[in-house]
């Protein structure tokens, strides 16, 4: 019997047999952290992901790919510990495997109360690589407006955000001097 997170918070959506067994004294299944939806990690460090579910009595925790396929240990690459923690080890760019390092996973917890399934968790490895952020060249006549654009390489754009602009090594901070970075006089 499987009751997903979406069903667990709406008792009427869970099968009656699971709801009845979950009310038994000392028997339960629950989500420790059901907000875990994405894990991004550096290939040079690896990652440890605990299954976000638990139970009483202790639940058997298992990991799966979003397709429902069981995952298996891959020596020095991926391991599921006895406590239900999924570990992806550090790896070199040449060892990247999208099936392992860029995929959706979920875990289940099962005990005498039944079985629950976590939401899918997006697991994505990123590579540390040097990059340069630069300002696009603009020309403008004195007294006119010039719009500057910060150019961030597409390979890191998802992970980098512009937090300030500088003029002659002095930060231009929004709200000070009455302007925003886009309208400060340069």
From TrEMBL:
PROSITE patterns: IG_LIKE (PS50835). It comes from the Eukaryota. Gene3D superfamilies: Immunoglobulins. Residues 15-122 form the Ig-like domain. This is Down syndrome cell adhesion molecule-like protein 1. It comes from Alligator sinensis (Chinese alligator).
């Amino acid at each position: 019997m499987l009751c997903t997170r979406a069903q667990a918070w709406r008792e009427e959506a869970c099968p009656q047999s699971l709801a009845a067994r979950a009310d038994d004294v000392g028997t339960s299944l629950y989500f420790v952290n059901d907000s875990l939806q994405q894990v991004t990690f550096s290939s040079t460090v690896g990652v440890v992901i605990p299954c976000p579910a638990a139970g009483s009595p202790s639940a058997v925790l298992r990991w799966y790919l979003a397709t429902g396929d069981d995952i298996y240990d891959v020596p020095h690459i991926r391991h599921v510990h006895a406590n239900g923690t999924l570990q992806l080890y550090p790896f070199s760019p040449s060892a990247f495997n999208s099936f392992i390092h860029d995929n959706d996973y979920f875990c289940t917890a099962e005990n005498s109360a039944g079985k629950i399934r976590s939401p899918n968790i997006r697991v994505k490895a990123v590579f540390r690589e040097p990059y340069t952020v630069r300002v696009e060249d603009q020309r403008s006549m004195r007294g006119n407006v010039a719009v500057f654009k910060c150019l961030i390489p597409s390979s890191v754009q998802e992970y980098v955000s512009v937090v300030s602009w500088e003029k002659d090594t002095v930060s231009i901070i929004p709200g000070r001097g009455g302007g925003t970075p886009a309208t400060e006089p340069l």
